[in-house]
TrEMBL record:
The keyword Transmembrane helix does not apply. This is Probable endolytic peptidoglycan transglycosylase RlpA. It comes from the Bacteria. InterPro entries: RlpA (IPR034718), RlpA-like_DPBB (IPR009009), RlpA-like_sf (IPR036908), RplA (IPR012997). PANTHER family: ENDOLYTIC PEPTIDOGLYCAN TRANSGLYCOSYLASE RLPA. Lytic transglycosylase with a strong preference for naked glycan strands that lack stem peptides. The gene is rlpA. GO terms for molecular function: lytic endotransglycosylase activity. Residues 25-118 form the RlpA-like protein double-psi beta-barrel domain. Keywords: Cell wall biogenesis/degradation, Lyase. The keyword Signal does not apply. HAMAP family: RlpA (MF_02071). Signal peptide: none annotated.
Length: 139
């Protein structure tokens, strides 16, 4: 999913697959809760996927959907791989929103925000999946 879109008067242009495969950025992460345990009324992502409280996923403004990223909390060194399947955060200076479970695994849920490094692991699904060519990934 690479179509341009507009939110609150701001136009966003998702990056190409090639750009995304080389993407790495440091910035502020936040967490958001789009799920409900009983009755999934609010729990749909931009890709139409359901979100449950135990999912580990994220939202990004310009990465192609879907993709997998490694998010590292720079204050404690904890890292988690997660699927990016939604758009956001639409708050200035934030680079990624993660689900509550992801925020817990990264050790910042109680703080709300943290400084992170986001690195793309792969873009796409199934036969369209392309992996980033970084030799320094350790998993």
């Amino acid at each position: 999913m690479q179509r341009s879109y507009t939110i609150k008067g701001q136009r966003y242009h998702p990056m190409s697959v090639e750009q995304a495969l080389n993407y790495s950025e440091d910035g502020i992460a936040s967490w958001y809760d789009e799920s409900k345990f009983f009755g999934l009324k609010r729990g749909n992502t931009s890709l139409g996927e359901k979100v449950m409280p135990w999912h580990v996923s994220a939202a990004h403004k310009t990465l192609p959907l879907p993709c997998v990223v490694k998010v590292t909390n720079l204050s404690n060194g904890k890292s988690v791989k997660m699927r990016v399947n939604d758009r956001g955060p639409f708050i200035p200076r934030r680079i990624i929103d993660v689900t509550p479970r992801a925020a817990s695994k990264l050790g910042f849920k109680e703080h709300g925000l943290t400084q992170v490094r986001v690195e793309v692991v792969s873009v796409g699904d199934g036969k369209y999946k392309r992996k980033a060519k970084r030799s320094w990934f350790w998993w």
